[in-house]
Fold each of these.
Amino acid sequence: MKYWRAVTDDDQIFTETDSNWEDVENIKELSFIIDDGKEKTVIALPKGMDSYNQAKSASMVVGSKRVQIESRYISFCQRNITIRVRIDEKTNNISIEYDEPK
């Protein structure tokens, strides 16, 4: 199981399994939890960034109603630079992506 966990300025904890991202405001800490039942890994982003985001990349076969999540990421933005930590759903490979300021 993979999911994000956010901690707000008033120390409330929200996770992907119990909250919608749109309902989480004033995030001070964001992390990924990867739990395969045997081992739990936490990837935490730096605290106090300008903004935090999470998203998923998915695909769907035309004519099918089945959506398959291919990867998910959490990211932060600081001084117009975006850093993403992406996890591949099939392989669990982790990559770090960087967007330069525009």
Amino acid sequence: MLVGRYWCGGSGVRMLIWWVFFLCFFFCFFFCFFFCFFSVFSLFFLCFFSVSSLFFLFFLFGHTCSQLSSEFHTTTLNVFTHTVRPDPKVVASGGRPYKAIVVLFLAGAADSFNMLVPVTGCDPAHDLYQEYKTIRGNAALDTSELINIVDTSNTQPCTTFGVHKNLPIVSDSYDLGEAAWIANMGTLIQPTTKQQFKDKSVPLPPSLFAHNVMQKSIATMHPQLSSSSGILGRITDVLSSRTSQPYKSKLYSIAGPQKIVTGGPNADIISGSVGVQRYVDYDVLKDSIVNMTHRMSENYLSDTYSGTLKHILEATESLGTKLNQQTVTATFSEEDLSSQFKQVAKVIKMHRHASTPSAERVERAAFVTKLGGFDTHRDLAETLEARMATINAALTSFVEEMKTHQQAWDEVTVVTISDFGRTLTSNGLGTDHAWGGNYFVMGGDIQGEQIHGQYPSKLGEENGEVNLGRGRIIPTTSWNSLWKPVAEWFGVNSGTEMDVCLPNHEKFPNVLGKGDLFK
């Protein structure tokens, strides 16, 4: 609908003038045309009046054309107001100890049943490793391709498991009590059994086994609501928007735009290879940019664009300048994932640097990194071996930098996520889309040497309770058992705050808490 205040920039007087002049123009035009047609003077008067009227209308229309449209504004004329654009609200630091979450997203669905394998100490009546080899066929790993770790939780079907041979940083951290595993974890809305799945008697995540939808589900932790924001975004938003003692929090993606960081403070996107991409002509055009963005606009679209442009350019310049001043001591390889973790290490060093004024010190930071190429339908062995080596190189350098050079390892938690697991059975060349999988978490504050969740005690379709067929394993642990303890460690309170972050967590009676995963 058309509303007067939009037609004339909020001025009823200007609207009245517009209409009065418009009616007078047409009245005079028709009067002169019909009654003075043969008069040269009348024709001259008609032409003069018409041209001057048009000039006046163009002037008036030009001043108000940004309002000559519907409420949602279809024009983009940038008419400045006298109001100076306010600076974004800044949360002051409370001086509390720093903490950082670093998400490693294994995009494409990692075959995590070859990342954590049952080996020995299993039920004597049921050789779980032999069953693993039988079901996996040519996808199975030999014990010589595994690094043994011992589970101290006494809740798993075996006491000794094997970590993929190309992940020594994970097995070493596990033995040091700085890494743990969560077994058979996946996206769930509520606990689901094999029979319930077949009967469709419980709500299931949408589009199971589809990459795009399942990636969104793990990013939002709210699979039944497709419009939900990201879990990292909600966690940092809860902490930074408290009415009492909010945390100064920041979000970063080193992997381009990612759903997981939406919904909180604006995430800064940093390139793994070059760091912050700054506008090369900013110094030359700075004054012009200030002139364009300093005052607010009458047009909503123009005002939103100007405000966003101002914030992006100023934030980019500020972050880019500070980050360029940081260096790391550990050696990172030139591989993309190592470069991403190098940038994370530089940001953490920047946050904790002694020169940062206390009121500006970030207290909570969350990062997302990404390694793709895990959709191993045709090349499981080669791809998984290469990807594990890439992860190991990146984490080895990152752990060294955090522990030895920055003394920040106790303040950092690294978590791994992936679309879903892969089938236990082989298709001849690789494995296909499945559901549950095994994931590790690392950090100086982790209560390690434990495998949480429940590794399947039987892997077969006939004798097992979690094999849906073709080796698709129903997860017995939801992602809530990763995110609830991590959120609590990060500072999220139980009750309303946790409900906002994890809408489904109360549906899982055995969900892990901070005391289970952290020291």
Amino acid sequence: MAIKMELHPDVDYYVKHRCNQEEQTEFFKQLGLIRTEPVRHSEATVDAKLSRYVLRFFRFGDNIAIFEFDAGHSRVRVLECHRLLSGKHPRAGP
């Protein structure tokens, strides 16, 4: 079953205008892997400002993309991207 992908407009802007070509290529490569098996190719995280539910994330270059995976609707929605601060890791999920 094909998984539908949705990018928040801020994510689209971030990737196009704040990432270099190498990071853009890595983002779309990782997104392709996420589309095949979202849970296997990502890690859990919690971010109360985005959702009260557990979210997933993947890294691309020095950046992170946070997304929600709705298995019932076969949909991945990328909610936010930002640059990782050196030595700082995203909050781990339960």
Amino acid sequence: MLKSAKDDMALFAKMMVERWPTDTPGDSARHQIAMFLVKDKKYTEAVSALEQVTPSYTGFPFCMYELGNAALAAEGETKDGKNRTKAIKAFESIVLPLEGSDPSLVKVYFIAKAKLGGEYYVTKRFVDLQKLSVNLSAELAMPHNRVDIDQVKDQEIRKAIATNVGNLELFALYGLANASFSQSKLADVSKLLDPLVEKASEGKMPEIKQNLQLGSALFGMALQANISIGDIEKSRKVVKALQYLSSDAEASGTANVVLLQLNSLIGEQIKDLRKKNDPKALETAIKGFTTILDDVTKEDSSKKKAMTNDLVRLISLNYSTMGLNEKALDLLKKAEKPKDANDPKATAVYRGIQLQQARELRYLKKYEDATKLMDEIIGTKEMPGWGGKDIDTLLEKVKLMETQEKYSLSASMASQIVKALVGKSSDNQIKEKYLEAYYHMVFGLLKFGTTSTDPAKKAKGISDAAGLIEKLITSQPDFGSIDSKKRFDDLLSNESEKELKEAFEVLKAKRAVSGTKIDAGNAAPKTGDKK
């Protein structure tokens, strides 16, 4: 529109307002003026104009809808909350038109209320949001509340609005549950989410699949709440609900949401119970968690298809966390080699399963089988395997040697890993591997000495181990990381390693006096034995 024409229309509208301040022409003019102001991004002025429109004006619902939008735009500029309050008040003022009203009025009512729901969520009025979503669902279900004169379009628009309203109900539930969750009122969380879990666990909630992120957050809270309060039966239902939620994602090969959460939750719960030293509670928890995991495997079997390797890996990790290593191993054996050898993701998962299988064999003291599998993974010089240069694999080999008390070999192998990683510790992941290998180098050297019948070898083993620990702490404060510190603190506080601690304290005292680092010798110790 040309500027002069626009100015003329604005002038005419202003004249109408002045001549009919409380009548329809004046309200219509205010509406028109406000639209000009919105177009010019003068939102505060637009809000002021629309606030003057009287409820008797036939276009009042449209004005209040525009007022709400303009106020939210103004809020984006002022950010003081005052305009948001005006927006909420405007959206709230719109009432459902009487039966037989123009469909456009009904349509703007539902759209405005959906926006109101969003503002209720932002302002944490979750109870109001819940009431609003319930009322809107009931009103949408009434056939006479048409939003378009065309029946096909009416159904399409109604369906889109219903989806939006359904999301509002879920957001209200999330807000209420999250408020209780943040206050550790886990029983309340469980109670709030029970109806949702029940419905989804029975496969009767397709709408929640439209918002996987929100559904995952809701069921994640329900899972953590029920596991934390020890309600295994409800936890089983939550797992079914999560499976239902992620069933389409699983079909397309994406990660399984259920077990990623379960693995973390089970690990935390088992760890806490072990710390509390409550064998009965631990036994009950393991039994319950096992039931949940068995449900998952049974569910997958009922689909009459092979379990994905991702699923095998995650479930077996859960079993292993609980010390059910035979179950973990049996499951790992069901893994299938990737059909496409050039698929990097599938190959990485399968290799992880192979390594985990070796680990479970070690836990079960099936050393011959573990060694055979590790040899296959690592290979030979002539026929190298994929694990020959993989740090996790090489560390597992070190641990396998340690478990069999082959300390000379374990110390030597660990020292080779340390040499390979020296100078690469700027990467935190590599640094952790370096520190882990360093610990096993120290441990192997120490045990080689203390298990020897030769007094001289024993003394040298203790002295060299203490020297390496002192060398580490002078270059890496607090042993380099939280995990590394815990390993060495546990070793030094072990009653059976008093001589190591004494030797270490002597070296520390010497360094404190001299102010220099003690020469701890070569970081790649030579034991000269193959014990």
